[in-house]
Amino acid sequence: MGETRQQSSEDSSLTPPSSMSQLTDLSIAEASTQIAAKAISPVELTRAHLERIETLNPKLNAYLLVSSDLALEQARTAETEILHGQYRGALHGIPLALKDLYETKGLRTSAGSPFLRNNISPKDSTAMRKLYEAGAILLGKLNMHEWALGVTGDNPHFGVCRNPHDPERICGGSSSGSAAATAAHMAMGTLGSDTRGSIRIPAALCGIVGLKPTYGRVSLNGAYPLSWNLDHGGPMTRTVEDAALLLNAISGYDADDPFSSNTPTEDFTADMKNGIQGWRIAVDTGSYTGDSEIVSAEVRTAYQQAAQTLRDLGANTHEVDMGFLIYAYNASRGMVSADAAAFHQLRLMSDPEMFGEDVLKRLRGDQPPNAAAYAQIRHDQMVLKRQFDRFFREFDLLLLPTVPFPAVRRDDTTAMDKGRLHYSRFTAPFNMAGVPAISVPCGVNAGNMPIGLQIIGGVWQESRVIRAAWAWEHR
Question: pTM of the full predicted structure?
């Protein structure tokens, strides 16, 4: 894995648990508490994750690059700083990994594409820089759907990323490796990107937490785009608190990102545990979630039971019909096709054969709207945003499933086609609206595959979304 295991002079000052699995089972919050107390070592924590990667990655293919030497060097530095009283906070000494569209200085950043197979990043993305400043450790770069343009996560160039719950099923995409690595405890947390659901879909299919913040909350400077108007960066973790801790580190204004918003950030854990007593939560009772040809009975049942649980926790639920979101769902596809066609115009002209079959089909088959149609989509996007401004004055939150059905088998072509068409049904509208949304685990189906629950809030209301998600998680 790049470095033989040796006892460093710092190791003896910190006492790790006897079992490496105990280390990889820790949440970020749990590990940071023990690191701050000098009860566990960042070096041993990092080694435990590298060993787990070495064992599981050949089966799951979540990592495209494992930066073992760099990770161990960073872990030793973190340990030395902590032993000398220079503890930086909750991510200091925590091993993380990134979707391979975030640039990392001196390492390859491929965006899942052979066009960038030999691309060594000259600089760190803003998100990576902020994680480094927080003291985090980089385990490596993660598999993804090519150019982030797909929901299955199956990459023809770098190999299929497999779902830890059933390797014959998809992880979801495009942040497939981020979800698989987190679910399989090969990283304590990861970063993904989300254009029509690419954080929340794989989070739901792999049974983890995935948070899409408000548009402009997290800088995407140094991250390869899919759609400038819809892309969001955010955390993928095993717990809600861990997602909040990662968001604390990566959020904030970045003058180098023209889409970054100069909006004050906050500590997203500050009132996380204060409950949802009396909150007004909108629950869809129309055809949007009730379409039995698209939404599985198990997902509908889990969704209805989740609404009841939130009532038991003190919230007031209100029946609404969210059918109007179908337009936003469809319009977002047109916006992606136009933005992607613009970004890939030269590649499509010079080397179209270098694209995977499914991505090339999307780039050529999803005809970008003409100027008038695109202008209409942009206009309607602003109307949708204003509509949600009013909506979230009436309601504190909106509750929806994350995906209409759990992870499908990749050898089931009918199910795969259905997934490509419908997995983003409940997620894409909130990229158009730019509002924060989180996916949290919501049980499993009869085949023991995870189901996701989505909690959506108003613009800049990440703390409210996180607070409800934490209440749900600790129900």
Answer: 0.95
